[in-house]
Amino acid sequence: MLALFFPLFGWIAFGFLTSLIGFILLMTGMHPGFVPAPRNRGNLIGKTAVLVPIYNEDVDAVFGRIARMMHDVDAAGEAGSFAFFVLSDSGEDAEPRERAAWAMLAARSQVPLHYRRRTANVARKPGNVADWVSRFGGAYDHMMMLDADSLMSAEAMIGMAQVMESRPSVGLLQTVPTIYGGTTLFQRWMQFNSRLYGPISTAGLVWWSGAEASFWGHNAMIRTRAFAESCGLPVLPGAAPFGGAIMSHDMVEAALLRRRGWAVHLIMIDDSYEEFPPTLIDMAVRDRRWAQGNIQHLQLLNSDGFHWVNRLQLLIGASAYMTSPAWLVLILTTIAQAFAGESKLVEATTSARVLAMTVVLLFGPKLLGIIWAVSDTARREAFGGARAIISSTLAEIPLSMLSAPIIMLTQTMDLISIFRGQPSGWNPQNRDRDGLTIRAVLPRYRWHLVAGVALLALSPAVPVTALWLAPVTLGLLLSPWLASWTASNAAGEAAMRHGLFQVPRTGIDQLPATEASALRAIAH
User: Fold this and answer.
1) 5: confidence class by pLDDT, cuts 50, 70, 90
2) d(CA 378, CA 381)
3) CA–CA distance, 36 with 164 (Å, rounded to integer)
4) Spatial CA neighbour of 255 closest among 231, 226, 221
5) Are 51 and 145 in contact (CB under 8 A)?
6) DSSP type of residue 34
7) Closest CA to 20 of 200, 188, 140
8) Distance between alpha carbon 341 and the CA centroid of its chain, in Å?
9) Which residues, in sequence order, are CB contacts of 193 under 8 Å at separation 6+?
10) Cβ–Cβ < 8 Å for 149, 274
């Protein structure tokens, strides 16, 4: 129990301290991670390529977002300083629609827009970007790396380009994207969490990572020459899932940049956006791919020349998935010890102080996020007022408690499949869904139900331990219904009608309806 408890306790303590430091910095105005608004527009010296890698995406949605950004750049007077590149890895059937959308949009904008579809998807997204760098990168000082669901304002991109030009030692600026456009209950819930609790933890992360920050693969500006000189990725020895092309390439590329002496900074900037998976299942599918990539990083920890902070970030990324089986084994150990003598276990090893500290570490960041939100009048009203913030938090906590054991078991099963040598593959992401039937969900959560029934069956034999584990048991038993219910747009709209999960409006939300319609027409 001690071997499991101490690293898990340290894991949540690390998260709490990061949030506490960020809270102090934000509340005292000492936080250094913001980029100032652009100055002297029209005077950018260098050129920036905006790269949008896509893989069998919704063509209308992708090109609609590109149209929004190109329009914004043109309106800001910087059409000559930016060029957009759509780097497609889509199948052959998708090319006609992608090419038609590109041709339509390119003809209507002063900002250059280029399109290229690879016929051989070598090394996935990293290979696509590497191909662009080797063929076209020399013409551009910087490259803004986006995902298919990314969206950034011209002000954000221009401001970052100005920072790159004034700080020649900086190789990469990574923004913290804001989740936007949530429609399902799951998306609205995650969107609220990220907007309320995210800023304080991010501020703390910016503080301790310093010039050795990580790269998240999108919504980041990179110095093209630095990337070309530093970030050639090796092919790991052996077969997938441990060998082959590096899947979670971004964190490794950040470490490679720092190894060459380039500074990598995480910044908090407005108008950097991304979408979130619409359901618990879609998040798990994405997580499976991330888990495999992060586990690969374990064999890179001893790479020559890596900064110790970059090694720590690689270890943290892998640990984020390895903690799930550790929690599961800790639960099983607790049950085994309960059968060996439950009353003795509870009386002799349960410390009220340790329990109280654990509660503080788990729920402290939430309390700090609430204090930060209500401390400023404009921010408080943007979240719907203090009552809406508290009500949403009270609704969010039980949802998080119920989903935690679901995620724990899912990630444990994913790790088992990885260590059995089963690669995740490369499938298009589902970014838009409305509802999941119980019939469709049940196969995905059959083992969760089995585990929940087993815990319930053991409850009469170890009642005290069963009481402690009640949230785990309940979450596993409700897993199909929780996944189905939170996947609904109607449930998300109902939550909003009751004042739950409100978040501050973004610049995207304030886009006039007529302009939004025009952008959709351009996409078509």
Assistant:
1) confident
2) 5
3) 12
4) 231
5) yes
6) B
7) 200
8) 43
9) 396, 400
10) yes
Phi-psi region of 167 (alpha: psi -120 to 50; beta: other; left: phi over 0): beta
Cβ atoms of residues 112 and 84 within 8 Å: yes
- In 3-state terms the chain splits into helix, strand, coil percentages (rounded to 5) of 60, 10, 30
Q: Which is nearest to 53 in space by CA: 118, 141, 107?
A: 118
What pLDDT shows up at residue 244? Answer: 83
106 and 83 Cβ atoms separated by less than 8 Å: no
What pTM, to 2 d.p., does this model score? 0.91
* Residue 212 DSSP symbol: B
State how beta strands 220-223 and 142-145 pair. Answer: antiparallel
Average pLDDT over residues 60-83: 94
Size of the chain in residues: 524
HSE-CB at 315 with a 13 A cutoff on CA atoms is 12
- Report the SS3 class of residue 289: helix
| Strand ranges for 295-347 from DSSP E | none
Strand 235-236 and strand 151-152: the pairing is unpaired
Question: If residue 222 lies in a helix (H) or strand (E), which one and from where to where?
Answer: strand 220-223
* Token output for 189: 């819930």
Over residues 417-461, the pLDDT tens digits come to 998 888 776 677 777 788 899 999 999 999 999 999 999 999 998
CA 143, CA 119: separation in Å to the nearest integer? 23
Reference 189, options 396, 404, 489; nearest CA is 396
Q: Which residues 6+ apart lie within 8 Å of 387 measured at CB?
A: 499
Q: 244-245 and 235-236: which strand pairing?
A: antiparallel
For residue 275, which phi and psi values (nearest 5 degrees)?
A: -90, 170
Q: Alpha-carbon distance 399 to 409, whole Å?
A: 16
Do 112 and 74 touch, CB atoms closer than 8 A?
no
CA dist 136 to 44, 110, 253, 315, Å?
A: 20, 20, 19, 34
- Cβ–Cβ under 8 Å, residues 492 and 188: yes
Exposure string for 184-216, b = 16+ CB within 10 A, e = fewer: bbbbbbbbbbbbbbbbbbbbbbbbebeebbbbb
Cα-based angle 9, 12, 13 (whole degrees, multiple of 5): 80
Amino acid at 242: F
From the centroid of its chain, how far is CA 342? 41
